[in-house]
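Translate structure to sequence.
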């Protein structure tokens, strides 16, 4: 799937549209530079699932929202640089959650640890307002 977004609101809508197609367990790996819309996309998807306050996990690397049928994980690896740090994250436990819907910002930081079965979401900056969003299932 490929989308062009012209506003943050459109990016949220695209997040909603994409998440509607999936059930847990599911892992979304988000790629794209600073300000390309990753958190905005997650905000839209999370709102569809009933989470209204999505903050950017800038200092904490993860937020977990436990919902009745889903555990929503919002992981942001921007600050993770070294292998030792990845290993300390305990990601495997999250990845094996049958109720998990997992979003990983800056997933390229742990490329080697990413599961084969996942959905990649790539954000490209076209200009100040426009974003190209490419969603690709991997297996
Ligand atoms: N079409 C658009 N879609 C999403 N965001 C947009 C769009 N146009 C402008 N913006 C602006 O770009 C920024 C996107 O921020 P957001 O936090 O979603 O990016 P991010 O990819 O998560 O960045 P970071 O890597 O810092 O976490 C916001 O300031 C938003 O207002
Ligand atoms: Mg972000």
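Result:
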């Amino acid at each position: 799937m490929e989308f062009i977004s012209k506003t943050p609101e459109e990016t949220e809508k695209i997040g909603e549209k994409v998440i509607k197609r999936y059930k847990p367990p599911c892992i979304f790996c988000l790629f794209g530079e600073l300000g390309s819309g990753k958190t905005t996309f997650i905000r839209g998807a999370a709102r569809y699932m009933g989470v209204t306050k999505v903050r950017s996990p800038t200092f904490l690397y993860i937020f977990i929202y436990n919902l009745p049928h889903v555990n929503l994980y919002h992981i942001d690896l921007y600050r993770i640089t070294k292998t030792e740090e990845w290993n300390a994250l305990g990601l495997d436990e999250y990845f094996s959650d049958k109720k998990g819907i997992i979003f990983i910002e800056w997933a390229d930081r742990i490329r080697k640890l990413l599961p084969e079965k996942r959905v990649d979401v790539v954000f490209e900056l076209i200009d100040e307002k426009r974003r190209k969003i490419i969603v690709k299932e991997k297996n």
